[in-house]
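Sharing a chain and its predicted structure for anyone who wants a worked example. Both blocks are below, sequence first, tokens second.
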Amino acid sequence: MSEKLALQAADGSGSFSAYAAVPKATPAPAIIVIQEIFGVNKNLRDICDKFAAEGYFAVCPDLFWRQEPGIDITDQTEAEWKKAFALFNGFDVGKGIGDLKTTLAAVRAHPACNGKAGTVGFCLGGKLAYLMATRSNADCNVSYYGVGLQDLLGESGNIKKPLLLHIAELDGFSSPEARAQISAGLKDNAHVEMHVYAGVDHAFTRIGGKNFNAGATKLAHGRTAAFFKNNLQ
């Protein structure tokens, strides 16, 4: 079962919506699914539905609402890519984290949630999941091919809850030097679990995308499932 949540921004600038997939048995642990640059599209809604089928209250907030509410596009046309990158370039990361923290508080207070809540994000969402590990009290966080993490290592000392990183070896949006920096900067943090997937590019789990890799996706999602089971259940 799905529903739409209405959330008030903490800075008083307005309200935004979130897609919520409710499991059969509640209250349940919650997972906040953090969008890519294509908005809360079918791919993200399907991910929420899958988590709900596994027993989680899954919520995906609209983080582009300050620019244009209700973005729902794909990676299949040049026009959609141009729009996605324009939205990405106009996105305020600090305000986005504020909206995610608002979502986290609302989700924990929702009757479908038992009070435990983590995050999982992809691409832009992977960066935001990392920042939720450094800037929020989420119980755990999962980052898939997060962009620009090498520039955020100064915050790594704030990571006090479990963080799982999935990194693509051939990520076109992250150089080998950047990946080496990330590895070196986080390897001594006992809260961080990091996996590099050989021979795959950015967005290797995006079904229908040109870089989709079934084997790496199965391995990464299996690790994510075990991670959430260990830290939320």
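Comments welcome. Residues 27 and 110 are 9 Å apart (CA to CA).
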